[in-house]
């Protein structure tokens, strides 16, 4: 079992270092701190509220489902972060490229990734054509978290899974109502 755990950690670390150290250029150094904001609380909550405020009928319902999914998944993220207490890569690995992005203390799971995947998954369930926009944006936000050195790949994958599961559950419940 410890061999598997060691392999998973090594893979996690090597993938993080690939994105943070090997894939580097000035353009990405400028873009990634901006693109990561697409998963911020300000952007994701504002997006949901905007859909609710300007949408009509079914569109307004999609915005509400996205907001509920965002809220529930965000609550779970905070519970997990405070329970697991995984330090961020920039706190553990001395020579990571960092970009002074605002972060809280713990790493697992990625809140930005969870937030943007909650919205993308809600769109996929309710307006499937928008999934062609939502999921690429969500994947980009996940990659920015690695590039910026603030999350391990497993943090990002956990955020994706958490958002997908939460949104699927909310979609199922809303279909029953």
From TrEMBL:
Gene Ontology cellular component annotations, sorted alphabetically: plasma membrane
Q: Does the keyword Transmembrane apply?
A: yes
Keyword annotations for this protein? Cell membrane, Hydrolase, Membrane, Transmembrane, Transmembrane helix
| Gene3D superfamilies reported for this sequence | Phosphatidic acid phosphatase type 2/haloperoxidase
Q: What is its main location?
A: membrane
Source organism's superkingdom? Bacteria
Q: Which SUPFAM superfamilies match?
A: Acid phosphatase/Vanadium-dependent haloperoxidase (SSF48317)
- Give membrane topology per the record: Multi-pass membrane protein
Q: Where in the cell is it found?
A: Cell membrane
**Which residue range or ranges hold the Phosphatidic acid phosphatase type 2/haloperoxidase domain?**
62-171
Membrane-spanning intervals of the chain = 31-55, 129-150, 156-176
Tell me a Gene Ontology molecular-function term this record carries.
Answer: hydrolase activity
The family database entries (Pfam families) matched by this protein are listed as: PAP2
Q: Output this protein's name.
A: PAP2 superfamily
